[in-house]
Amino acid sequence: MKILYFGGSFDPVHRGHTALLKAAVKEIKPDIIHIIPAFHSPFKERSNTPFDLRMDMVRQAFKDIKVNIIFDNFEQRQNKKTFAWQNVEHIKKTYENPKIFMLVGTDALNDIPKWSNPEYLFKNVIVVAGKRVGLAAEEKLPFKYHTLKARLPRISSSQIRLEIMISGAASEELGPIKKIIDDNRLYFLNLHDWLKKNLKENRYLHSKAVSALAAQLALINEVYPERSALAALLHDCGKSMSPKELIAYCDKHNIRLPYYKEICENGPDLLHSFVSAHIAQHVFKITDEEILAAVREHTLGAVNMGVYSKILYVADTGSKDRKYKGAFTVRDLALKDLDTALVAATRMKLIFTVEAGKWLCPEGNIVWNNLVSKK
């Protein structure tokens, strides 16, 4: 009996997965397909999307494939990280002497030797790989595999999540799973709902513009674009409050920062970044400290900022919606060198504050002096 095993996070499932499965069905002609969504992928952070919803999306995406498909919740039942070899072992115990084909994309194919217990896989499955446009298998892999003839679209779940997060909308191209995403406000659609309700339209559009640039800068600097995009969407959520409301919020939640008294007296709007971080943590349950730090530090900056803080600080200053002089320069520099852009953005903020006759927070001077001392 031929069993085709197809695992993955499916977060979300997309037309690339469907094309891959259809190509395998056409060539392998399996008797049964086991679709096993990951409960917690060993290679990724735990998904924010509940397992049951990812399973629902998979059922919708593969409903037209005319083969006996078992939508297997084996990993959910384990309630922990589960490895591919354990899924194969589960399938072997389910059938008498099955011939198991393990379906993967080209990107996963190259990583199989690094997986847990790869020797077990080499002995017990026939690897079936799809060719994705723009990706190729390594020339020498330590196992035999079958390459499908079909050419598959170059698309990824992370790309889809990022597009939804930045735009605030799920594309019609997602087909039947769009309704599941929309109905459950997945991939931070709930955050967009909140921002549209609580921010003025131009502030909401600014947040989206910053998110787009932050994601681009993250890719250039080889860090996670979803983290940068999320920090950018959250960075101004405290802007919904007036100066008096910002002070009251900080007092109520015991939010304190250097020069707090002076800021309350001379520039209470500066509190919005700290309030935004608090909202991110307590309303949207963000626990990633790098994201929270980026939100806190996007206005005044900080000594020795991390890469996500630098990206947000620069993206906020140089986003495409900014019309003031110097924004394009900061953006252009950021696409070439993040640290150079950070110095330029900090300098521009200081000059703008002085020329506008506004109070200059001492923290800004400390950050500037730290930056120029490193030149």
TrEMBL record:
<keyword id="KW-0520">NAD</keyword>
<keyword id="KW-0378">Hydrolase</keyword>
<keyword id="KW-0479">Metal-binding</keyword>
<dbReference type="GO" id="GO:0008803">
    <property type="term" value="F:bis(5'-nucleosyl)-tetraphosphatase (symmetrical) activity"/>
</dbReference>
<comment type="pathway">
    <text>Cofactor biosynthesis; NAD(+) biosynthesis; deamido-NAD(+) from nicotinate D-ribonucleotide: step 1/1.</text>
</comment>
<keyword id="KW-0408">Iron</keyword>
<comment type="function">
    <text>Catalyzes the reversible adenylation of nicotinate mononucleotide (NaMN) to nicotinic acid adenine dinucleotide (NaAD).</text>
</comment>
<dbReference type="GO" id="GO:0046872">
    <property type="term" value="F:metal ion binding"/>
</dbReference>
<dbReference type="InterPro" id="IPR006674">
    <property type="entry name" value="HD_domain"/>
</dbReference>
<dbReference type="InterPro" id="IPR004821">
    <property type="entry name" value="Cyt_trans-like"/>
</dbReference>
<dbReference type="InterPro" id="IPR003607">
    <property type="entry name" value="HD/PDEase_dom"/>
</dbReference>
<dbReference type="GO" id="GO:0009435">
    <property type="term" value="P:NAD+ biosynthetic process"/>
</dbReference>
<keyword id="KW-0808">Transferase</keyword>
<keyword id="KW-0067">ATP-binding</keyword>
<keyword id="KW-0662">Pyridine nucleotide biosynthesis</keyword>
<keyword id="KW-0547">Nucleotide-binding</keyword>
<protein>
    <recommendedName>
        <fullName>Probable nicotinate-nucleotide adenylyltransferase</fullName>
        <ecNumber>2.7.7.18</ecNumber>
    </recommendedName>
</protein>
<dbReference type="Pfam" id="PF01966">
    <property type="entry name" value="HD"/>
</dbReference>
<comment type="similarity">
    <text>Belongs to the NadD family.</text>
</comment>
<dbReference type="GO" id="GO:0004515">
    <property type="term" value="F:nicotinate-nucleotide adenylyltransferase activity"/>
</dbReference>
<dbReference type="InterPro" id="IPR014729">
    <property type="entry name" value="Rossmann-like_a/b/a_fold"/>
</dbReference>
<dbReference type="Pfam" id="PF01467">
    <property type="entry name" value="CTP_transf_like"/>
</dbReference>
<dbReference type="GO" id="GO:0005524">
    <property type="term" value="F:ATP binding"/>
</dbReference>
<feature type="domain" description="HD/PDEase">
    <location>
        <begin position="199"/>
        <end position="327"/>
    </location>
</feature>
<dbReference type="InterPro" id="IPR005248">
    <property type="entry name" value="NadD/NMNAT"/>
</dbReference>
<dbReference type="InterPro" id="IPR005249">
    <property type="entry name" value="YqeK"/>
</dbReference>
<keyword id="KW-0548">Nucleotidyltransferase</keyword>
